[in-house]
Amino acid sequence: MTARVGVITFPGTLDDRDTQRAVRVAGLDAVPLWHRDKDLKQVDAVVLPGGFSYGDYLRAGAISRFSPVMESVIEQAKAGMPVLGICNGFQVLTETHLLPGAMLRNNHLHFICRDQKLRVENAETAWTRSYEQGQEINIPLKNIDGRYVADERVLDELEAEGRVVVRYRGGGLGGYPPKERSNPNGSLRDIAGITNEAGNVVGLMPHPEHAVEPLIGTGGTDGLGFFTSILKKLVDA
Amino acid sequence: MSLDTVKHAEQTPDVQQPWAELGLKQDEYERIRAILGRRPTGAELAMYSVMWSEHCSYKSSKVHLRQFGDKAPASDALLVGIGENAGVVDVGQGYAVTFKVESHNHPSYIEPYQGAATGVGGIVRDILAMGARPVAVMDPLRFGAADHPDTKRVLPGVVAGVGGYGNCLGLPNIGGEVVFDPCYQGNPLVNALCVGVMKHEDIHLAKASGTGNKVILYGARTGGDGIGGVSVLASETFDDTKPTKRPAVQVGDPFQEKLLIECTLEIFKENLVAGIQDLGGAGLSCATSELASAGSGGMRVELDTVPLRDATLSPEEILMSESQERMCAIVEPDKVDRFLEICEKWDVIATVIGEVTEGERLEIFWHGEQIVDVPPRTVAHEGPVYERPYARPEWQDALQADDANKLPRPATSGELREQILKVVSAPNQASKSWITDQYDRFVQGNTVLAQPEDSGMVRIDEETGLGVAVATDGNGRYAKLDPYAGAQLALAEAYRNVAASGAKPLAISDCLNFGSPEDSAVMWQFAEATRGLADGCLTLGTPVTGGNVSLYNQTGDVAIHPTPVVAVLGVIDDVARRTPIGFADEGHLLYLLGDTEEEFGGSAWSQTVHDHLGGLPPKVDLERERLLGEILISASRDGMVDAAHDLSDGGLIQALVESCLRGGKGARIVVPDGLDPFVFLLSESAGRAVVAVPRSEEVRFNDMCGARGLPAARIGVVDGDAIDVQGQFSIPLAELKEAHEATIPGLLA
Q1: Which residues of chain A have pLDDT under 50?
Q2: Domain range holding A96?
Q3: Cβ neighbours of B749 in A, within 8 Å
Q4: Are B465 and B514 spatial neighbours (Cβ–Cβ below 8 Å)?
Q5: Where are the beta strands (DSSP E) in A144-206?
Q6: What ipTM does the predicted assembly reach?
Q7: Which annotated residues bind Mg(2+) 1 (chain B) (predicted)?
Q8: Which residues of B fall within a CB distance of 8 Å from A217?
């Protein structure tokens, strides 16, 4: 069996073709979805890829959430369809309130692109079932508005309910002050990704689609698990 | 004042025109009058003045650049040569690659962020206009002294601009250079390179043919930004009550450019254009005159149909505006509807502004009245050509006589260790990751190698693994000592970098950054450098596909070092065979390829330890470079080496430090008999590389080098967590890492 995974293209989306490739590498069918089109083409899951949708004008993700395709995504997400937002996609998911919190400019104010160590804190979401709880993985991070913030109550709730999906972990990354060697942007409680209460909607700042083939990107395949998890989820369901 | 129409110009031959303020010389102005048989209208004067500027016409450099064509090596790979928006190279399997490096130096000093951002935008549109999908960018950058206060203004702005624009376009930034030297203090060099990929049949050219075909302007609205000389014209000849002196630096909108890329690629896919040109320097003046000049007929443009950001713009300003993110296409009438439909899908504004006509005139109208009537070739391709006087400067002999080989050398191994740490931590040799980590190198999912590797490499076919590699290099210090050799050393280094990664060099693009052509010494440097480059390309068999000349990089009488930057493009049949620089496996044997001589002129050591520039640069032996390249490519293809790193600034020790830190492993090194450790570690002799050979491959590798006559000396082994030079010193990797990586953030973060 296979699954159909929709990949949305907004104007200004950059990682859509890479995400389609990652979906294919994971053995799934990639279905391109267009922002003006409400029709989700009967996909089993949806990925909102990274980029600068609508130029990030106003605020990252702020305009995309009003696009026709998002109406359908919000509806389906609430009905349990797996939805993954990567980077700009995560920003869109917080703008739609499918996920809590918000992303601010990195604390050092620069764009940052590097290999990033992460720890999988919740291996039971629709998008992380291929990993082990506590597994350390290495996938690229690249953003300028990547600092995850939420109020203390929300952060406590996320942690209490196991909804922190991945956290930034330290690595010997040269060229940065020690505190930035692990947490690359000042995200509260080192949060790199979270999920909703049902575990079907996940938002991630790092880019698993850039770590699915040996030789390319980081040269590892640690990111593949996010995409293969979907098949596991559908089989289990 | 009323509109200056062609008719009006005929009736008023004696009107004083501001040709001098627009940068034209008297004889150039007279020539325009002679071509037209009357005085030019304001709009015509504006067009000629920008198109005949140094930047657009290459009037000082043209006589020297001809050598790139005259001495071009025979090459089966070249599909489109110099003269188009960018050259196109056949890389096999039906793919063609186009690439070009260009400068955006002057705007970047004035407004670092926008200057650098629009530099990226401009080169990307050049590549797009050839019919290619842009797949990667690179940025060779040069700044004043790293610790100068103004560098802290210019560099972060330039880096943020390169990143801010490139990251938003979804183009991986896979390499480039960052060099510091006081000579660039008031004249930073911001060069930008883009690589694009297409199938052979998708190549598009900038020409307007086919009477009745429509001229479509699409992309951003035209605004008042980027108008240089013309605001002078507007304020002096026309209505001077409106706001003038708009910013001369263009403002970029990468989001608009991203839409333009996707929209244009979809238009190409449906084969909807007969000719296409991007709008860059000189805006519509350039696009309309170049398209018409290269085509078979004439062109008629209704200028008042151009969508504007500012309704008060005069026709002259519209013609000159350098507003970014615009393209101009020639479209057959029955394809116009579909063309406009695709633009609508991508929210890109598109307007039919004119059509291709019979005859040979470029005619432009403003609300029905004719304001331009010119032969387009005289604007675009038949501008003035100067044979500027040039002479070897009298100080050249004294500079070359000031021999760097005679500088005091380290007396003890302790002193050698100390000086080595100084060299590898100096801003020019230090890790640039703080800068390159501000660029997205992963997007598009095809990046195989990126900084700090020897070349940037991207896969272009997922099935076969076909890929291309690009490296850019330049060394102004070498070129100052000897511009002919300096240009060849830049070529040799970029060639070597591509080969070290396992790719076969095919062609080059160059960005020639020099001082004022009106200075005979600068002109001599330029003549020598272009001659060196043309001769070098002939020997190496790599044709020049195009590039850019940037002159007037000087403050007062002081010019920058002559800085020819060379980009070499190579092809690799399967990226799985690429060779990285990192020493990752203990036990692999280290071989030094090539000959090491005492060559310290222009070296990193002479700069860092003695603040000295004098003597002669390293000797150039291009036949040796070619042989070294062949060995590196064969070794990569046949799996004989696991890592390779070219030797350049900082010599062997710099390469060892970079390879050890990259792979996370140390090295034990033995100085070969008869070689002075200082010379062995720090000399910058060209034509060398260090490789890591698995023990199982040693015999085969040695046999190959022996049979081909390339000197190969076993100098050590990958081992431990230090660089240990036997009998001399040992430096732990942790100490090297700190020295190498802390410098740049320490100065700039």
Answers
A1: 172-177
A2: 4-236
A3: 108, 177
A4: no
A5: 147-149, 164-169, 191-195, 201-204
A6: 0.92
A7: 102, 548
A8: 442, 445, 447
What is the C-alpha separation between B349 and B259, in angstroms, rounded? Answer: 11
Per-residue pLDDT band at B476 (split at 50, 70, 90): very high
Task: State which fold the B6-61+202-380 domain adopts.
Answer: Phosphoribosyl-aminoimidazole Synthetase; Chain A, domain 2 (3.90.650)
- A15 vs A77, A98, B308, CA distance in Å? 21, 21, 32
The answer to whether B560 touches B512, Cβ cutoff 8 Å, is: no
Count the domains in chain A: 1
Neighbours of B671 (CB within 10 A): 18
Residue in A52, A111, A140 closest to B442 by CB: A140
Q: Which residues of B touch A177 (CB under 8 A)?
A: 745, 749
Distance in Å, alpha carbon of B129 to nearest chain A alpha carbon: 20
Which CATH number characterizes residue A47's domain?
A: 3.40.50.880
Residue B650 known to bind ligand: no
Backbone angles phi, psi at B267, to 5 degrees: -65, -40
Catalytic site positions of A: 87, 207, 209
Sequence-ordered list of residues with C-beta below 8 angstroms from that of A152, at least 6 positions apart, any chain: none
Can you spell out the DSSP letters for B63-96?
HHHHHHHHTPPP-SSEEE-BTBSSEEEEEETTEE
Domain ranges of chain B: 6-61+202-380
Q: Residue A197, class by beta-carbon neighbours within 10 Å (0-12 exposed, 13-18 middle, 19+ buried)?
A: exposed
Which of B167, B253, B256 is the closest to A111 by Cβ? Answer: B167
DSSP for B416-462, written as a single string: HHHHHHHHHHSTTTS--HHHHTTS--STTS-EEE-TTSSSEEEES-T
Q: Output the pTM of the full model.
A: 0.94
